[in-house]
Structures are given as C-alpha cells and as structure tokens.
C-alpha cells in the first residue's frame, strides 16, 4: 500500500522519481564531501530574532538544548582567509556593485540573451565575502529591486552575525512546534504571492497572516510514498500557462477558491511546500528518542508529515530538480569564479570540488569546449536531458509573467525575512540558509543567461553581486534536499520490510 506506480495526476511533464533518485545516488557522496570543506561548512549568519518583521511577544521561544546553535566564538577556528580582520583587505579586489533593477531590464535581458554574443573571456567573478552589501533595511524601506531573491547574509567586517559550522549544528528534531511554528508556516504560505495558495483551512488572500486563523490541518490523502520509477510530474508546463488544480490535495482545496493559477504562482507554492517537506523529512530522519537519547529515524513521524501526502512528496522532488538544475547551470561560469584571491591552489581545489558536484548534478554534463552548445550533452540522451531539466524559459515569459517577476522576487525575499521569526535558533539557522539557497537558485535560473557569451554585460552584472554566502547557501540547500531524498528511500525500504514481515 505504500505507493502507486501510476503517474501523478497533473498536467505538467517532468522528471521521474527514479531520475531524481538516480541523480542523488551519484551526487550524495560528492555533496557529503563538499559540505565538509572549509569553504562550504562555515556560514556567517545573523540569527537575531529582532529581524522578524512582526511583533510577536505573546509566544515564547524554544528553550530546548536542541534548539540552540553552537556559534564559533574563537575566530581562529574560521579559515584565515575570511576572518573578519582580513575581510577589509578584500574590499579593493571584490566587485560588489549592486545595481537597481529597472523595468526595462527583463526585456533587455531576454533580447540580449537570445543574441549569440561575444565571449566573456576570462573575467573573474569573486565569490568571496563582500565588504559592504546593502543592508536589509535598504530592501525593506526603499523596496530596492535588483536581481536578488533573498537577503544574502552579510559577511563584511562590520556586518552583524557570527560564523557557524554547519556540520556541527545539524538540522534535526528540536522539539520546536505548536502554535508558534504553525503561525510562522502560515505566514510563509500567505506570502504566497497572489492570495491563491497556501494550505487547507486558510483564508486565501488574508493579509495579516501571522495573527489570523487557528492552525493548519493535515490533508487526507492515502499513503503515497513513491515507488522508484513512478512518474514525477513536477516540471512546469510549457504550453498551457494556466491550469485547474486537482481538487483533493492541499493546493487543490485552495483551487476551489482560486479557479486558476499561473505557472509562476504554482512555482512559488511548490517551493514553499517542498521546503516544508524537506524540513519535516530531516526532523523525522533524525528524531530524538527520548528514552534512549539517540537520534533515530521515526517512520510514523515521516509518514504522517510527508509520506502520506503525495503533493508534499512531489514538491520535495520538484525542489530537488530545481536546485540541482541551478547548480548545474554554474558549469558555464565555474572557470570565471574566484574563491580565494590569496591562495591559488586553494582556489583551484574549491573549483575542482565544485566542478565535480556540477558534473554529478545533472544527467547532462558539458565539457568546457561544448559550453557554447547547450544542446550537446556528452553523457546522456537528449530525452533524459529533456526530462530532468527544469524548463525555466517558460517562466516569466508571458506578458503577465514578466509583470509578476519583480513581485515574485519581493515575495521570495519576504519569506526569507520571515525566517527570522522562527522561534528556535537551530531551526532559524537552517530556515535562513535554505531560503537564501532557494533565492540563489532562482537568481541563477531566472537572471542569468545559459552561457556568459550570450550576454557578457548582464552576466557580469549578475555575477559581480554573487557572494560566497549565496554559494554556500545554494550548495547546502542542495545537500538538505539530497538528504531528504535519502530519507525518503530509507523510509520506503522500512515500509517495505514491515509489509513483508506482516
Ligand atoms: P507542521 O509541520 O508545523 O505543519 C503545519 C501544517 O502545515 C500542517 O498541518 C499542514 O496543513 C501544512 N503542511 C505540512 N507540511 C506541508 C507541506 N510539505 N506542504 C504544504 N503544507 C504542509 N522543527 C524541528 O524539529 N527541527 C527543525 O529544524 C525545524 N525547522 C523549522 C523551520 C521553520 C522555518 C519552521 C517554521 C519550523 C521548523 N520546525 C522545526 C518546526 C516544524 O516544522 C513543525 O512546525 C513542528 O514540528 C510542528 O509540527 P506540526 O505537526 O504542528 O505540523
């Protein structure tokens, strides 16, 4: 009874569960290694709850030990290269000009991206801690529009926050929950751009998300843990821009109110839902057994929160396809990224490790020589390529889609700001990191042309704002999703063993 092999009913074509799991099989060991390296394991983050845009005094914060974050007090633990005392020195080397978005940019970008332009040559983009990124207040107060879908963490000398070693603070069960957590999730879904989405029992379109309503309720779908090989219809459709949702699932219920959803709205909902599925998968995969004090997988926890809900699973796989696609897009930029201005061999080592990941992150791999020919996969048939690729070119392409783009960015940034409201430091850390990771993925997918040569000027502008914290967030978000897929396969095997025994 675990899974149906039948295709998920949806009008979207897409990757299969099996393809995602196969990709993950290759990618998991590479990610595990990469996220242990100094470059990718240290993350500077401002965990101040005061950054929460809402006043919410009435509900307390989580005081469990498991909710705490171990920060790095002793700077000597952080690699010398980006210790704050050195960051000032990078200022003159780093290109960090943020620019204002103008309404013409999208049109110009799409026009230029179609033209096959001049080679970008060997202009290097620093993926280094930057000296003076815009403050969060800049975004919130002046409604700054740019190519960012998140508020990247500020690694500057004067910036707030502390370095955290991510492997030392695993995302797992913390005991944080109840009305506070529900309110944050509710607020997150109600950021969903257009008033149409969110989970059941919500008033779609309610503006004061945090103070409204009395909790969520779970969907009533049958167990639906995917069998490897069943169809994952999770890539957005190309042709029909609007669709009617299936009625019966979480978003389906909303569809009764919504009537129609455009692909951009649907994308937004899926990312949020996939994020929540991933958080739930981790906390159930490393659940605290209060009798033994050990962190162990909890099948009931997983089935009730994720495994019994087909849409939640589907959205988890969807996010995997989306983020791995964004990572694989870096293949054409990797040679021009600078990771360490001061140590050429460290710079090369990080580039090599990242390249290994990029090559594993998609069934399609490209050699540098083929970088200009995006239709020439070297290690996969074009049908595989078509299936796993997330078709970002269909998003924001219609006149209504283009109009939605800046609002979409703003809404994603709002979700990222809401992470400061999470009432448990450990969960806030991972919530902030993952929303920054999705923001980076969206920026790569929707703001960058496939090849630098397609539009050197645009690439240079976007890449010059690309920060180490964004890259670290992107890679660790993919690692989170990768571990979630590992959890799904683990729980599926558990369920099958139980079925055999019974
Ligand atoms: P919740 O998981 O809070 O779900 C609330 C409601 O949301 C459900 O009833 C359902 O209607 C809807 N819903 C659930 N899943 C989905 C989905 N995938 N798609 C659409 N709708 C859905 N706890 C930890 O132990 N460790 C963590 O690291 C952690 N990180 C967190 C990060 C954030 C940003 C937040 C807001 C909370 C975090 N929590 C964490 C708390 C955790 O997510 C739950 O909120 C908590 O365990 C209480 O669970 P619940 O049973 O009330 O349901």
From TrEMBL:
Q: How does it sit in the membrane?
A: Peripheral membrane protein
Q: Which cysteines are joined by disulfide bonds?
A: 62-67, 424-427
Chief subcellular site?
endoplasmic reticulum
Task: Name the cofactor(s) required for activity, per the record.
Answer: FAD
Q: Write one Gene Ontology MF term.
A: protein-disulfide reductase activity
Q: Where is the active site?
A: 424 (nucleophile), 427
Q: What residues does FAD bind to?
A: 172, 174, 185, 273, 305
Q: Among the entry's GO cellular component annotations, what is one?
A: endoplasmic reticulum membrane
The places in or outside the cell where this protein is found are: Endoplasmic reticulum membrane
Q: Name one GO biological process term.
A: protein folding in endoplasmic reticulum
Task: For this UniProt record, give its keywords in alphabetical order, as a comma-separated list.
Answer: Disulfide bond, Electron transport, Endoplasmic reticulum, FAD, Flavoprotein, Glycoprotein, Membrane, Oxidoreductase, Redox-active center, Signal, Transport
Where do transmembrane segments lie in this chain? Answer: none
Answer yes or no on keyword NADP.
no
**Per the similarity annotation, which family is this?**
Belongs to the EROs family.
> Subunit notes for this chain?
May function both as a monomer and a homodimer.
Q: Which protein are we looking at?
A: Ero1p
Q: Which organism is it from?
A: Sugiyamaella lignohabitans
* Organism lineage string: Eukaryota, Fungi, Dikarya, Ascomycota, Saccharomycotina
* Gene that specifies this protein: ERO1
